[in-house]
From TrEMBL:
A molecular function (GO) term: hydrolase activity
SUPFAM superfamilies: Isochorismatase-like hydrolases (SSF52499)
Domain Isochorismatase-like: 4-174
InterPro entries given in the database record: Isochorismatase-like_dom, Isochorismatase-like_hydrls, Isochorismatase-like_sf
Keyword set includes Hydrolase: yes
Pfam name, any one: Isochorismatase
Species: Actinoplanes sichuanensis
Keyword tags: Hydrolase
Protein name per the record: Cysteine hydrolase family protein
Length: 181
Protein backbone atom coordinates (compact mmCIF):
# COMPACT_ATOMS: atom_id res chain seq x y z
CA UNK A 1 0.00 0.00 0.00
CA UNK A 2 1.32 3.40 -0.97
CA UNK A 3 1.91 6.05 1.66
CA UNK A 4 2.00 9.69 0.58
CA UNK A 5 3.64 12.77 2.11
CA UNK A 6 3.60 16.42 1.10
CA UNK A 7 7.02 18.11 0.98
CA UNK A 8 6.95 21.88 1.50
CA UNK A 9 10.37 23.04 0.34
CA UNK A 10 12.33 26.26 0.83
CA UNK A 11 9.32 28.34 1.85
CA UNK A 12 11.48 30.36 4.19
CA UNK A 13 10.91 34.10 4.72
CA UNK A 14 14.10 35.17 2.92
CA UNK A 15 13.26 32.96 -0.06
CA UNK A 16 9.59 33.99 -0.29
CA UNK A 17 10.66 37.65 -0.28
CA UNK A 18 12.64 37.09 -3.49
CA UNK A 19 9.67 35.57 -5.35
CA UNK A 20 6.78 38.05 -5.28
CA UNK A 21 3.47 36.39 -6.15
CA UNK A 22 0.52 37.32 -3.92
CA UNK A 23 -1.41 34.18 -4.89
CA UNK A 24 1.36 31.71 -4.15
CA UNK A 25 1.12 31.35 -0.37
CA UNK A 26 -2.69 30.89 -0.40
CA UNK A 27 -2.33 28.12 -3.02
CA UNK A 28 0.39 26.46 -0.98
CA UNK A 29 -1.67 26.84 2.19
CA UNK A 30 -4.52 24.99 0.46
CA UNK A 31 -2.20 22.06 -0.29
CA UNK A 32 -0.96 21.99 3.31
CA UNK A 33 -4.51 22.13 4.69
CA UNK A 34 -5.67 19.35 2.35
CA UNK A 35 -2.77 17.11 3.37
CA UNK A 36 -3.40 17.72 7.06
CA UNK A 37 -7.14 17.05 6.68
CA UNK A 38 -6.37 13.81 4.83
CA UNK A 39 -3.92 12.83 7.62
CA UNK A 40 -0.99 12.82 5.19
CA UNK A 41 2.39 13.64 6.65
CA UNK A 42 3.55 17.17 5.86
CA UNK A 43 7.32 17.51 5.90
CA UNK A 44 9.00 20.91 5.79
CA UNK A 45 12.39 21.14 4.09
CA UNK A 46 14.58 24.23 4.34
CA UNK A 47 18.06 25.11 3.26
CA UNK A 48 20.34 25.87 6.17
CA UNK A 49 23.87 25.91 7.42
CA UNK A 50 25.69 25.87 10.72
CA UNK A 51 26.81 29.23 12.11
CA UNK A 52 29.45 30.57 9.74
CA UNK A 53 28.44 28.06 7.01
CA UNK A 54 31.53 25.82 7.38
CA UNK A 55 29.96 23.21 5.09
CA UNK A 56 29.91 25.60 2.12
CA UNK A 57 32.78 25.51 -0.35
CA UNK A 58 33.62 29.02 -1.64
CA UNK A 59 33.63 27.54 -5.16
CA UNK A 60 29.95 26.59 -4.91
CA UNK A 61 28.14 28.90 -7.38
CA UNK A 62 24.90 29.03 -5.44
CA UNK A 63 26.04 29.16 -1.84
CA UNK A 64 29.75 30.06 -2.06
CA UNK A 65 29.15 33.68 -1.01
CA UNK A 66 28.10 32.42 2.42
CA UNK A 67 31.33 30.52 3.10
CA UNK A 68 33.21 31.82 6.10
CA UNK A 69 30.79 34.68 6.76
CA UNK A 70 29.69 35.39 10.30
CA UNK A 71 26.15 34.11 9.86
CA UNK A 72 23.80 32.59 12.41
CA UNK A 73 22.73 28.98 11.98
CA UNK A 74 19.71 28.72 9.65
CA UNK A 75 17.25 26.26 8.20
CA UNK A 76 14.29 25.90 10.51
CA UNK A 77 12.21 29.04 9.99
CA UNK A 78 9.34 28.95 7.53
CA UNK A 79 6.94 31.59 6.31
CA UNK A 80 4.18 32.04 8.93
CA UNK A 81 1.47 31.41 6.31
CA UNK A 82 2.63 27.78 6.03
CA UNK A 83 4.70 27.03 9.09
CA UNK A 84 4.98 23.51 10.49
CA UNK A 85 2.91 22.25 13.37
CA UNK A 86 4.93 21.07 16.39
CA UNK A 87 4.39 17.44 15.37
CA UNK A 88 5.52 17.89 11.75
CA UNK A 89 9.10 17.07 10.79
CA UNK A 90 11.49 19.79 9.68
CA UNK A 91 14.43 18.71 7.53
CA UNK A 92 17.46 20.90 6.95
CA UNK A 93 19.24 20.38 3.65
CA UNK A 94 22.70 21.72 2.80
CA UNK A 95 22.37 22.12 -0.96
CA UNK A 96 19.63 22.50 -3.59
CA UNK A 97 17.97 19.07 -3.50
CA UNK A 98 15.82 18.23 -0.48
CA UNK A 99 17.94 15.09 -0.09
CA UNK A 100 21.38 16.73 -0.24
CA UNK A 101 23.05 16.73 3.14
CA UNK A 102 19.81 15.86 4.93
CA UNK A 103 18.20 12.86 6.58
CA UNK A 104 15.08 13.10 4.39
CA UNK A 105 15.46 9.69 2.75
CA UNK A 106 15.93 8.03 6.16
CA UNK A 107 12.85 9.81 7.53
CA UNK A 108 10.71 8.81 4.54
CA UNK A 109 11.78 5.18 4.51
CA UNK A 110 11.28 4.84 8.27
CA UNK A 111 7.67 5.95 7.78
CA UNK A 112 7.24 3.71 4.72
CA UNK A 113 6.51 6.74 2.53
CA UNK A 114 6.92 5.97 -1.15
CA UNK A 115 4.91 8.75 -2.82
CA UNK A 116 6.02 12.37 -2.56
CA UNK A 117 3.89 15.38 -3.42
CA UNK A 118 6.23 18.30 -4.08
CA UNK A 119 5.65 22.02 -3.55
CA UNK A 120 8.13 24.84 -3.08
CA UNK A 121 10.34 27.63 -4.26
CA UNK A 122 11.96 27.56 -6.77
CA UNK A 123 10.71 25.33 -9.55
CA UNK A 124 14.13 25.49 -11.23
CA UNK A 125 15.95 24.93 -7.93
CA UNK A 126 14.74 22.69 -5.12
CA UNK A 127 11.80 21.25 -7.05
CA UNK A 128 13.84 20.26 -10.10
CA UNK A 129 16.71 18.86 -8.05
CA UNK A 130 14.37 16.96 -5.75
CA UNK A 131 12.32 15.50 -8.62
CA UNK A 132 15.49 14.16 -10.21
CA UNK A 133 16.97 12.70 -7.03
CA UNK A 134 13.66 11.30 -5.72
CA UNK A 135 13.01 9.59 -9.05
CA UNK A 136 16.48 8.02 -8.89
CA UNK A 137 15.60 6.83 -5.37
CA UNK A 138 12.43 5.17 -6.75
CA UNK A 139 9.82 7.39 -5.12
CA UNK A 140 6.52 7.94 -6.89
CA UNK A 141 6.14 11.66 -7.50
CA UNK A 142 3.45 14.27 -7.91
CA UNK A 143 4.34 17.91 -8.52
CA UNK A 144 1.75 20.55 -7.63
CA UNK A 145 2.49 22.93 -10.49
CA UNK A 146 0.72 25.93 -8.94
CA UNK A 147 2.27 25.28 -5.53
CA UNK A 148 5.71 25.71 -7.09
CA UNK A 149 7.10 29.11 -7.98
CA UNK A 150 9.94 30.44 -10.07
CA UNK A 151 11.07 33.96 -10.94
CA UNK A 152 11.07 33.01 -14.61
CA UNK A 153 7.55 31.97 -15.70
CA UNK A 154 8.86 30.51 -18.97
CA UNK A 155 11.28 28.23 -17.11
CA UNK A 156 8.48 27.18 -14.73
CA UNK A 157 6.23 26.31 -17.69
CA UNK A 158 8.92 24.26 -19.46
CA UNK A 159 9.68 22.33 -16.27
CA UNK A 160 6.08 21.55 -15.28
CA UNK A 161 4.92 21.06 -18.87
CA UNK A 162 7.78 19.13 -20.44
CA UNK A 163 10.51 18.07 -18.00
CA UNK A 164 8.72 16.94 -14.83
CA UNK A 165 6.11 14.76 -16.62
CA UNK A 166 8.91 12.37 -17.60
CA UNK A 167 9.36 11.45 -13.92
CA UNK A 168 6.27 12.72 -12.07
CA UNK A 169 2.59 13.32 -12.32
CA UNK A 170 2.03 17.06 -12.63
CA UNK A 171 -1.25 18.56 -11.48
CA UNK A 172 -2.86 21.63 -9.96
CA UNK A 173 -3.56 21.93 -6.25
CA UNK A 174 -7.33 22.02 -6.80
CA UNK A 175 -7.24 18.78 -8.80
CA UNK A 176 -4.98 17.03 -6.30
CA UNK A 177 -7.19 18.24 -3.44
CA UNK A 178 -10.03 16.02 -4.66
CA UNK A 179 -7.89 12.87 -4.21
CA UNK A 180 -4.78 13.64 -2.13
CA UNK A 181 -3.31 10.14 -2.02
Amino acid sequence: MSRTALLVMDVQPAVVARYPDPGYLPRLRTAVDVARTAALPVIFVGVGFRAGAPEVDPANRMFGGLAGRDLPATGTEFHPAVSPLPTEPVVTKRRVSAFAGSDLDLLLRAQRIDHLVLAGIATSGVVLSTVRQAADLDYRLTVLADACLDNDPAVHEVLVGKVFPTQADVTATDTWSRRPV
